Fold this sequence. Notes:
Layout: H1 3-15, E1 23-35, E2 49-56, E3 63-68, E4 78-79, E5 83-89, E6 93-100, E7 104-111, H2 112-115, E8 122-126, H3 130-141, H4 149-158, H5 167-176, E9 179-186, E10 203-207, E11 219-224, E12 227-236, E13 242-250, E14 259-262, E15 269-272, E16 278-284
Parallel strand pairs: 1-8
Antiparallel strand pairs: 1-4, 1-5, 2-3, 2-6, 6-7, 9-16, 10-11, 10-16, 11-12, 12-13, 14-15
Amino acid sequence: MAPRLFLVALLVAAGCDPCLDTEAEDIAVDFRITAHGIPPPTLEYTPKTEVHVEKRPCGEDPKGQFDLGGFVSAEGDYESQPFGYNLRNRADEIFISFDCDGIGAGTQTLGYDDVAPYAGGLCLIELVPEGAARLQDLYAQNPEAFVFCHHLAYAEITGQARAGVTKAEVAKALTDHGYARVSEGYIPETSTDRHVDLQEGDIVLFEFDGPAQADSAAHYAVVHGNRVWQVAYWGKDDLGQEVSVLDGPREIEWFFQPRVLVDPRSGEEKTFTRVYQYWAIYNTLY
């Protein structure tokens, strides 16, 4: 083959390799996987924690496969042994599949850009229940539909994210989709016992000074993996745009005391001293 034709052949071949367009700096990242909301072990019962991890390099078969599982604390928390990967392409992925008592089965995928901030250090990965993952996907696809806390409740109830939903529409959606008020209570601000029993898919309403009502509660949140997820509203930025974030998972006790959140605009911690004292839970009857 003539030299010029050989060069053309090389260029054509190179253009057919999509991984060449996503080459990146070689980074090394250590990982540790955690999970919460697993039933605690007893003498008669060992909770199931099955976790599989592998690296899926761009254009190559999976490698670096780990099958993890094991110790669950008395509080129902799981933590894996650390493991590490090198990534060198923006299309490289870390793939995780899991099946754990209490939070169910699911998969999570992290890309190069997701883990690059942890290069040379440790990246903590929390296994997210399927329902929470679904909400995260809805939020990522349509964040403008999650401005206020009750918008998250509406998405959980209906499976749809819609901008501008009112609290009255949330109350109607609860009825239309077979939800009922399954429990409610009062936790004084001075109480040290702030525990509330939770079930998967609960819609939790919070109020400050009186019983929480479905069409007017001060705050709405949802439960997945025995932890609470919420939308935190931060007002408007300098350009007049609404600033909200999907926040969680949180322990239910966190809501009945002064709450510390990180302002996404400044990165500073802010403490909300007004404490919720009333709660109500809605869930389906079937």
